[in-house]
Amino acid sequence: LEGEAFFKVAKNPNQPFIIHSSGMQTQVVGTSFNVYAYKQASQMRVTVLTGKVVVTDSLSGQQVALLPAQQGVFDKQQRKLSVAAANNPQQSIAWQQGELIFEDASLPEVVDKLGVRYGTSIQLHDSQLKKCRLTVSFKQESLAEALQVVAALTNSTYANAGGKVELRQYSETGRAVNTPGAMNTPATYWT
Fold first, then answer.
1. Beta-carbon contacts of residue 162 (< 8 Å; ≥ 6 apart)
2. Cβ-proximal residues to 79 (8 Å cutoff; 6+ apart), any chain
3. 183/154 Cα distance (integer angstroms)
4. Cβ-contact 89, 50 below 8 angstroms
5. What 3-state class would DSSP assign to 165?
6. pLDDT category, 171, cuts 50, 70, 90?
7. 41-51: buried (b, 16+ CB within 10 Å) or exposed (e) per residue?
8. Per DSSP, which regions of the chain are E strands?
9. Burial status of residue 140 (CB atoms within 10 A of its CB: 0-12, 13-18, 19 or more)
10. What are the distances in angstroms from CA 18 to CA 30, 45, 150?
């Protein structure tokens, strides 16, 4: 699987249901869950709504078993598979209604999903921006509108050139700078 899909699978011990996603394998044991596995995304995620799934790193063989309200997160660069709480697992399937919902999400996760949605690469110029956390939701916004919200919440600016977007942190003087301090508290915006 490359992309994102929601599955609702009936239990059948004689015929396991297995999903292969570039470097990650998800085995299902009667459940409903969401798989986020875009080629350009830095992480793949499996979020369980009901039942149980087992996620495996195809190269190392590392496995994690996931129960409802848990999320398996596979970092592609570090080849690290971990388990995280999914405080509101329904958020993982909001994309089916055209929504992106983030609660206390890292800015890299937010721009990753915005990049996938709008078919562009969004880069964080300043390392401090990677420390920002956001609570934000998007419904029908254009890319420019979504970027304006993110820029306002992170005290940054953006530029779109050649199909790539770059976010830069503002200084107190209102100019973009290379090494500012990051926001220490989550910013919030609901549409």
1. none
2. 23, 57, 59, 60
3. 7
4. no
5. strand
6. low
7. bebbbbbbbeb
8. 3-9, 17-21, 24-28, 31-37, 43-50, 53-57, 63-66, 70-75, 80-85, 100-106, 121-124, 133-138, 156-161, 164-169, 187-189
9. exposed
10. 11, 15, 37
Is the pLDDT assigned to residue 181 strictly greater than 80?
A: no
Rounded Cα gap, residues 103 and 30, in angstroms = 28
The overall average pLDDT reported for the chain is 83
Give CA–CA dist 60/23, Å, rounded: 9
CA distance 122 to 158: 9
Average pLDDT over residues 155-173: 81
